[in-house]
Amino acid sequence: MPTLVSAEKVLKHFPIGGGILTSKPTGWVRAVDGVSLSVEKGRTLGLVGESGSGKSTTGLLLLGLLKPSGGRIFFEGEPLEELLRRDPRRFRRRAQIVFQNPFASLNPRMTVKDIVGRGMKLHGLVESDRELDERVAALLSEVGLKEEHLNRYPHEFSGGQRQRIAIARALALNPEFIVLDEPTSALDVSVQAQILNLLKGLQRLRELSYLFISHNLAVVRHMSHEVAVMYLGKVMESAPKDSLFSDPLHPYTQALLKSIPKISFPPEDIEKKVIEGDIPSPVNPPSGCPFNPRCRRAVDICRAEMPDFREVMPGHWVACHLV
Amino acid sequence: MTKESTKRPAHAAWRRLKKNKIAIAGLFIVILYVACAIFAPYISPHDPTKQSLADSFLMPNAEHLLGCDEFGRDILSRIIWGARISLLIQVSSVIVALLVGISLGALGGYYGGKLDELIMRFMDILLAFPGMLLALAIVAMLGPSVRNLIVAIGIYSVPQFARITRGAVLAISANEYVLGAKAIGESDLSVIVRYVLPNALSPIIVQTTLRMATVLLTASGLGFLGLGVQPPNPEWGTMLSSARMYLRSAPHVAIFPGLAIMITVLGFNFLGDGLQDALNPRLKE
């Protein structure tokens, strides 16, 4: 499979403080700290991690909506920086995003027609108002909405319907790559499955590549071909889905998989399986491996040195001294 | 999904406003005031500047409903024509303040960083002056005239609008639809105008209404001090100022313009408070 999007040791550090008089920032939030990953054409890379691990920031970096502080991002082999400099509008058509919260991702003052059609108008993809109507109506039916919804406002829709509108907006520019930033975590369980299946169907039909960001491992397993596990701004492990779920190598991935509650009888003892403590602050990351304060198997070298991210089996990458 | 909910949010706000009796009273006063201003030539019973010394200090009667002033001019007519000048000053100076304030506030809130710091510290400096004093200083510098009055009051109202707009823009920029707009390739200006400002409208509308009251008070205050509208033009503050010398012998000459100021200011304040509740129903709970 050819690669569509790839990141090489990408960094994103946000400054803390630094006002008009104190021009030097007092510290840095290392939101993304050396992420390498790649999304294959027509496939889905699942990106899992706890909140604050830098998943969403990574998504925004790949879309060029944030400028990386270091590292490189490639889109079909071309540096993203170059693409954005040469023709930013053309790149916008190629990469889109669907957000987590459908109640915050649609402008409440715009009708569905404007929300979905605005991109096409902006990029001059339609000749007339009638053509715009037709194109938007076609997109709406593609995501399971009706033409009569065209002139309604977002507040008239349920969460699931809103997410369909957001998907239609992302599809409107006919992109190759879509970042799905927790697209179902704000929805009811019954609606989640519908949206996930819609996304899968669209991927097959339009040969889309997805970066699927989620903290829900079951959903990631359902959606992804490859999976990358992030922790404190770093990718700890990445592998094809089956390999990662059946044979996790990193202690963090192992702990994460064990902490999924299962419906079973007698009820299993989940308390013993949870990962202790909280994710450390990205302002003051621990030295060595970022997971070492919570890792049960940590040894001295884990506290001293960050392990390399290396390929231990074909396609299976891991950053751990103990593997 | 009901038919009702297919309307825009403005309809819901109007329904809430209608239930608020005080706000409706305010709206009624404001409409009456604006009508007086617009139709002054048709509804004022007499010429507001025509003197008739025989009628000096005439008490209210059938011919002159609110009596006459020291030059025998009809007070009711002067109050009606005064509404015209006051409204002109209010609307123009608030427009000046809105244009400058919204632009500065939106720039600061949207871009943040040093630009924001610079703008807001400058606004803080303007806010540090007592408003009336600032307007007074500007008028004293430029000389008293209606145009300078508008400029002065406009400038001193800028920080309020800049602050309100900045706050709203900050909150709204955090919404994902702003990022989504950038993702489809909207320019910064388009993001601000199409996505951010339309959603920041309600605090701005409320502030505009409340500001109308303050501006009217300031304009009358400056008029009272002799730095506002100059006689013989009928402006309420100016009228009050010349009437104060006859307060004991002919109190009605001062009372009626004073009442006009008070009622109109109250009207705008009632309406503004009502709009606040109607546009942000969650704040009230």
What is the compact description of this entry?
The complex is a heterodimer of chains A (323) and B (285). Chain A is an alpha/beta fold and 323 residues long.
Report what the structure shows.
The complex is a heterodimer of chains A (323) and B (285). Chain A is α/β, with parallel strands linked by helices and 323 residues long. Helix content of chain A is 32%, strand content 24%. In chain A, the strands form 2 sheets. Chain A has an 8-stranded mixed beta sheet with strand order 6-7-8-3-9-10-12-11, with helices on both faces. A 4-stranded antiparallel beta sheet of chain A has the order 2-1-4-5. In chain A, helix 7 links the parallel strand 7 and strand 8 (209-214). The longest helix of chain A is centred in the middle third of the chain and has 18 residues, at 189-206. Chain A starts with a strand and ends in a 5-residue tail after the last strand. The model of chain A has no long low-confidence stretch (mean pLDDT 89). By secondary structure, chain B is mainly α. In chain B, helix 1 (9-19) crosses helix 11, helix 7 packs antiparallel against helix 8 (188-196) and helix 9 packs antiparallel against helix 11. The chains are: A alpha/beta (323), B mainly alpha (285).
